[in-house]
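Fold this sequence, please.
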Amino acid sequence: MATTEVPVSDDAVNFATIWEGVADALPDVIAAAHGTDTHDWATFEDRSARLAGALHAAGVGVEDKIALFLYNGFEYEEAQFAAFKQRAVPCNVNYRYLADELAYLLENADAKVLFFDETLADRVAEVQGRCSLVTLYVQVGGGDLLDGAVHYEDLVADHEPADRMPRSGEDLWFLYTGGTTGNPKAVMWPHDQMIANMTAHYRVLDRDIPTTATEAIEAAIELSGRNRTTKLLAAAPLMHGTSGINALHTLTLGGTVATLASRSFDADELWTTVALHRLTMLTIVGDAFARPMLEALDRAEAAGRPHDLSSVFQIMSSGVMWSQESKQAFLDHKPMTLLDSLGSSESVGQAMQLTRRDQKVANTGRFELGPTTQVITDEGEMVEPGSGEIGRLANRGANPLGYYKDPAKTDETFPTINGIRWSIPGDYATVEADGTITLLGRGSVCINSGGEKIYPEEVEEAVKTHPAVADCNVVGLPDDRWGQTVNAVVAIHDDASVDDDDIIAHTRTQIAAYKAPRRILRTDAFVRSPNGKSDYQWAKAEAERLAGL
């Protein structure tokens, strides 16, 4: 249902309405930190309101799309808040996109405004004549101003704060997801459904999910009074769901969202930022972040200058596998809570693995199902625990409306089965006899070798247990006999010397022999997405190049 067709309220469960109330109640609390700089809630609200005033002057209103082609920084959160204030829809844009990809997304989103970083101006210049609906280009950062654009800081300085307005819990936030194949798709999340995923946060206060903005603001005030406010380090880019969703939740609780100033991941900078702002929770993306973080801790300890982890209460990971070995290494450095969350852009909190302080770390890829999640076969039947049957994770809880302008894909991913609407993004798993699940991976990159289905993530985790392997992606390549074979694109540690056969033999001690790679393809320039997720399009192309196909 479109937001223009629903009733609005001054007390709706809406991000902008809640955040405005938090700013009024907790003006001196730090809302955002970037590098060494901070903005309190009063500053965050005022700058966002002035930006909203600029959007209003530009004719931006209900359901208009605001594209954010930005790196992490104050401007990302302020532009998002300003869009929410106007009941517009912020849309994330991957800052790695080149002109054709950028033009596709802007047209697909029907974007009216584009915020972009100065270093991306050349790409924006290439698409200006191709994006018919964009009427306002806003450049973040100094330097030469792109023709036809306006400076971000000029908009903030030259406009009065926008008037506050009644809003709806059904106002939208777009999360563009590239998935593993096909063009990016915008997942349409209503504010109230995204907030409904915060059950665990409110359980700490013995509160139910808020049904009004007032209830949410009261919870934020209570958390602050009890000194339980989350101070989050969003280590991954805000343009991706892991950081983006957790930032939304943290601000709704009246907390602090910190980001790193560097545009390439620096683990020492991360730990320095944690200590500087006394951050309590870190969001990362599996071992792509965890391994360099642990190496930085080891280096600092060996040099006699250990990093200060005393403020850290929890490390949370989502998006890719987080290995048992690196979890244990974090606990060896400091007792803390480790939350391995299994979710996707289309379905938050499908399952989790929670390790508290001195508990034994569970095996890699083993999760407890969430209360609204089950494993369902492709035929629509529930998988019986211990049966060995493979199914897809399906969540019937708080879910998005679907994909923007893609009803066919919406019907496929959000089917109604026996009268219940599910979100089934495509993550395959088996259900163990004790009710836990073992994650196999996304079906869209599944390898079919001789009729056997092989899930890359399972093989990748097995390969990466070899001490010589720094990173790994697994892809299928065509084979006349088997249809496809399993191929591992690997990065080897600089100081390691190992034969391909040794890696394959080691992998066969971890998983069934038919799943082990037929080829080890070594690369000196391993590529992952900015948020640490596997880039299977790159991996497939690199595998074909290295295999001479």
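The domain at 446-547 is CATH 3.30.300.30 (GMP Synthetase; Chain A, domain 3). The longest helix spans residues 41-57.
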